[in-house]
Amino acid sequence: MSEAVVPHPGEDGAQPSRANAGWFRRALDSDIFHSFRRSKLTMLAALITLLFFLIAIFASWLAVQNPFDPSQLQLLNSRIPPLWTADGQSPFLLGTDEQGRDVLSGILYGLRISLAVGVLGVVFSGLLGIGLGLVAGYFGGPVDSVIMRIADVQLTFPAILIALLVNGVAKSLLGNRLDEWSMLGVLVLAIGLSFWVQYARTVRGSVMVEKSKDYVAAAQLIGLPAPKIMLRHVLPNTTGPILVIATINLALAIITEATLSFLGSGMPDTMPSLGTLIRIGNNYLFAGEWWIVAFPGVALAGLILSINLLGDWLRDALNPKLR
Amino acid sequence: MLAFTLRRAVQAIGVMLAVGVIAFAMFRFAGDPVNQMVSIDTSAAERASIRQSLGLDDPVLVQFGRYFINALQFKFGVSYQFRLPVSSLLAERMPATLELAICATLFAMVCGILMGVYSALRRDTVLARLFQAVSLIGISLPTFLIGILLIYLFAVTLGWLPSFGRGEVVKLGWWSTGLLTISGLKALIMPSITLGLFQMTLIMRLVRAEMLEVLRTDYIRFARARGLTTRAIHFGHALKNTLVPVITVAGLQFGSVIAFSIITETVFQWPGMGLLFVQAVQNVDIPIMAAYLLMVSLIFVTINLVVDVLYTVVDPRLRATVGRAS
Amino acid sequence: MTQPVLSVRDLEVEFVTRRATLRAINGVSFDIAKGEVLGVVGESGAGKSVTGLAVIGLIDPPGRISGGEIQLSGTRIDHLPPEQIRRIRGKRIGMIFQDPLTSLNPLYRIGDQIVETIRTHTSLSESAARRRAIDLLAEVGIPAPEKRIDGYPHEFSGGMRQRVVIALAICAEPELIIADEPTTALDVSVQAQIIALIKRLGRDHGTAVMLVTHDMGVIAETCDRVAVMYSGRIAEIGPVQEVVRNPLHPYAKGLMGAIPTLAGDDKRLVQIPGAMPRLSAIPPGCPFNPRCALAFDRCRVERPEPIRQGTQSVACHLFEPAKETAA
C-alpha cells in the first residue's frame, strides 16, 4: 500500500530544476494539477459536482416551494407535465407529482438530503475506519486480528445488504419513534457501518509500515510519545488514498441511500431524497407520467457520474502505477 | 491440497458461526417475538406462557444453542407477516432468485469478457472507447434506475417485454422454473440485464486491465519473439492468463449478484428471496431477515470455498505452493 | 568474404513521445558472419537491447525504425509487413531474453510451449514435434527430458528454465540467435554453463549469435568480435582480443579498465566519471565528450564517424587522419 501513498513527485526531470520555485509553483506544476488541467472531462465533472453541492446548499432560495411542507402543496396542481409540453404550467418547470409537489423543488431539496446523507455517511465511515485501522495497526496482536477478521467477513457482503439489515434492526428497535430526522441518522449509521473497511485496511497498512521504522524506536527510547509521532507520519501518508476512497465512497454512499429509499427502507415520502422521489415517480411511469421519475433519475445519475469521474481521475493521478 | 481445503473449510465454518451469532442476536433482541405473535388484547399470563413455550426465558446460551441447532435443520422460525415457517417461504422463493442470478452472471461474463478483450486488444478504436464510456455509466447508474429505464423503453413504450413477474413457470418437483416457457424466458431478459449490468462492467474493466497487464509480460514478448501468430498469442496465451483471476472474481461475485437481486427483484416484482427480504425489512419481519442473512452467508461462504479450491486446480503455480505448504 | 548472416547499416530507432522524439539508436552498422558470436556491450540504456529488438522486429510503438537497413542473409527485413516478419521470428531468428523466470508462460507445460513453436514454423505432426521437443531439451542439457517435458515452468530452476528458453529459441534451427543478457538474472555458477551452451550451439549449428550483455567477462570468454555501444551509437567494434587488449575509444578504454583482473592487483579499478546522458539530453558532437578526459573542441560540435584502425573501427576524432573537414 505504501507506494500508493505519496503523490508522484514530478515527471522524469527533463525540465530544468525547480529548486527555487515556491510551494505554490510546485503545486501548480505538479502532476496532479497537470492531469487535472489536461482532462477536460474531469474539469467538467468537478464543475458539475460543485454545482450540485451549491444547488443543494441554496435549495431553499432556488425552489419555488418547500416540498417538505405539506401546506404548500396543492392537489389542484397535481400531475402537471413539464413547462415546455402543451399542458405545462408556470412555475412548475419540470412538472408536478401526484401530490402537487413541484418536481424541480423536490429534486433541489432531495439533492440536499442525498448529499447530506452521503457526506455524513462518508465522514462517519471514514472516522470509524481510520480509528479502527489505527487501533488495529498500533496494538497488533489479538485486537488487530479481531478487527481485521470482522473486516474480511464484512467485505464479502455487499454494502446494500448490511445497510438494509442495520436499517431493519433499527426500525425494529425504535418502532414508531422513527421520524424523518432519526431516519436520516439511521441511514448515516447504516452507510457508515457498511463502508469503513477500506479506510481501516489502508490506515492499518500504513501504521504497520511506520511502526517498523527506526524513528519510532528512537522516539520511545528518548521517552517521546510514539503514537503521537507515528500519527504525524501515518496521517499525511494516507491522505491520498483516503481521499480517493472517500470520493469513490461518496458516490457509493449516495447510491446506497438512494437504493434504500427506493426500496422503501430509507427516507419517507414526507422528506424525500432523490431515491424516494424515484420510488414515488416509478408508480406513475405506466400512466405515462414519465417526468415524475425521469428528472430525479437524471439528477441522481448525473451526480454519481460526476463524482465517479472525479474519483477515477483522483485515483489515477495519485497512483501513477495504475495509469 | 486436502489440508488446504480443510483449513479453508474451518475458516468458512468460523464465518458462518459469526453470522449465526448476529442472526440470533437480531432474532432474539431486535424485536420481541411474543409481541409480534399476539394481538393487543392477549393477557399478560398468556404472553408469559407463550414466552415459556418458546423458551424465551431460558439462558441466552441455551437459546442460541437451540436457534443454532434449528438453523442447521433449516428451521428459522415463523414469519411475523405470513404466519408461515420461514424455511418454506425461502424454499418457495429460492428457484426464482437462483435462475435470475445465474442468467445475470452468464450475461455479465459473456458480454464482459468479450467487451474487455476487445477493448484491450483494440485499445484506441472508437468501439473500445464507447465500451469504456458505457462501463463508467454502468458503474454510475444505480441498478434500480437501469431497471426503470428498461421497463420504460421495452415494456411501457415498445411493449415487447413484460414489466414484472416471472411469466409462466413449470414445476419440476419442488423447483419452479421459468426457463421452459416462452413467457418465462421473456420475463427473464430485462431483470437479468439489469442485475448483470454492474457485474458486466466490472468484469469488462477487470478483463481489460488484466489483459493489458498480461500483454506487457515477458512471456508474451517471448511468445512474439518465437514467431507465434498474433491469434495464438492473444487467444491462447494472453486470454488464458487473463481469465484465471477474472473467473475467480466472477465466481466470488455470484454471491453479490444474489444479494443485489434484492433491488432488481423489487423493481421487477420478481417473486424471489430478495423481494421477500425487502418486504421483511419494511414490515420488521425479523425471522425472515435473520434467515435470509444466514442463507445468503451460506451461499457466499460456499462459493468462496469452492472458488478458492478451484483456483488452485486451474493455476499450477498455486497448486505447487499449496502443496508445499500442506 | 561470404555474405554475412546479419548485416545492419545505419540503423536508427526513434521513440516518439509527447514531449519529443527520442533517438535511441543513431546510425548503427555491423555484420555478423555465419557461426560468429558478436558481443554487444555498453551501459544500461546504451541501445544494446533496442538494437536486438529492432533486428527481430519487436520494437513496439511509440518506437519505430526510422532509418537504415537490416539484412538477413542478403534479404532486407526491416520493412517487411508484420505477418512476414512474424514468420521470420522464431524460425530464422531466435531470441533469448534476460529473465528465464518470466519468459515462459506459467500456465502452460513447457512441452506444449515448445511443440506450439515448432508447429508454428514447421509442418511436423503433433507427435513428431513432441519427439523433436524431447531431443531439443536433451540437446540443451535438461536431464530426463521425456519426463520433464510435461513439467510446468515453476517446476524448473532458473538455469534449467533458461535452457528451456534456449531450446525454444533454437527449435526451428534459426540462422541467427539474439541473446539479450541471457545470464544476468542467473546465479554466477549457472552463468558459465549457459554461456558455454550458447557458444556450443552456435558452433554446432553454424548459427550466428548476437550476444547482448554488460558483462565484459562474458564477452571476453565467448565472443569472436565485440561492439561497444554508447548513447545509441557504436563507439568501437572489432575482434574481441584487440578490443579487450588494446581498446582505442576513450570510452572503451574506460570500460576495459573497469574489468577486474586477477593479476594486476596493484592498479585500482578505473572508473569513468559521470553517467551516460539520458536520451532526451544527448550533447551535440560526440555523446561521450562530457565524460571524456581527452575531449577537445571538435568533439563538442561534430559527431565522429567510424574510422577503420586495422581490424578495429572506432568513432572518435582522435583517430581522424590529418585532413580538413568540411564541417
TrEMBL record, chain A:
Species: Bradyrhizobium jicamae
SUPFAM superfamilies to which the protein is assigned, alphabetical: MetI-like
Domain of life: Bacteria
Lineage of the species this protein comes from: Bacteria, Pseudomonadati, Pseudomonadota, Alphaproteobacteria, Hyphomicrobiales
Record-annotated membrane-spanning stretches: 41-64, 113-139, 151-169, 181-199, 242-263, 290-314
CDD domains assigned: TM_PBP2
Family that this chain belongs to: Belongs to the binding-protein-dependent transport system permease family.
Topology class, membrane: Multi-pass membrane protein
Protein name: ABC transporter permease
Localization (cell): Cell membrane
Keyword Nuclease: no
Record bears the keyword Transferase: no
Boundaries of every ABC transmembrane type-1 domain copy: 111-311
UniProtKB/TrEMBL annotation, chain B:
Residue stretches making up the ABC transmembrane type-1 domain: 94-311
InterPro entries: BPD_transp_1_N, MetI-like, MetI-like_sf
Gene3D superfamilies per UniProt: MetI-like (1.10.3720.10)
Localization per record: Cell membrane
The keyword Transport belongs to this UniProt entry's keyword annotation: yes
Pfam families on file: BPD_transp_1 (PF00528), BPD_transp_1_N (PF19300)
PROSITE patterns: ABC_TM1 (PS50928)
Membrane spanning residue stretches: 12-30, 98-121, 133-154, 174-198, 243-268, 288-314
Keyword Transmembrane part of the UniProt annotation: yes
Membrane topology of the entry: Multi-pass membrane protein
Keywords: Cell membrane, Membrane, Transmembrane, Transmembrane helix, Transport
UniProt record similarity statement: Belongs to the binding-protein-dependent transport system permease family.
Protein name as it appears in the record: ABC transporter permease
Species name: Bradyrhizobium jicamae
Automatic annotation (TrEMBL), chain C:
Membrane topology designation: Peripheral membrane protein
PROSITE patterns: ABC_TRANSPORTER_1, ABC_TRANSPORTER_2
Keyword Cell membrane set for record: yes
GO molecular function: ATP binding
Gene3D superfamilies per record: P-loop containing nucleotide triphosphate hydrolases
Entry keyword set: ATP-binding, Cell membrane, Membrane, Nucleotide-binding, Transport
SUPFAM superfamilies, alphabetized: P-loop containing nucleoside triphosphate hydrolases
Top-level taxon of the source organism: Bacteria
Domain ABC transporter residue range list: 8-256
Location of this chain's protein in the cell: Cell inner membrane
Xref: SMART domains: AAA
InterPro entries the record matches: AAA+_ATPase (IPR003593), ABC_Ni/Peptide_Import (IPR050388), ABC_transporter-like_ATP-bd (IPR003439), ABC_transporter-like_CS (IPR017871), Oligopep_ABC_C (IPR013563), P-loop_NTPase (IPR027417)
Family as reported in the entry's similarity comment: Belongs to the ABC transporter superfamily.
Job of this protein: Involved in beta-(1-->2)glucan export. Transmembrane domains (TMD) form a pore in the inner membrane and the ATP-binding domain (NBD) is responsible for energy generation.
Protein name per its UniProtKB record: ABC transporter ATP-binding protein
Organism the protein comes from: Bradyrhizobium jicamae
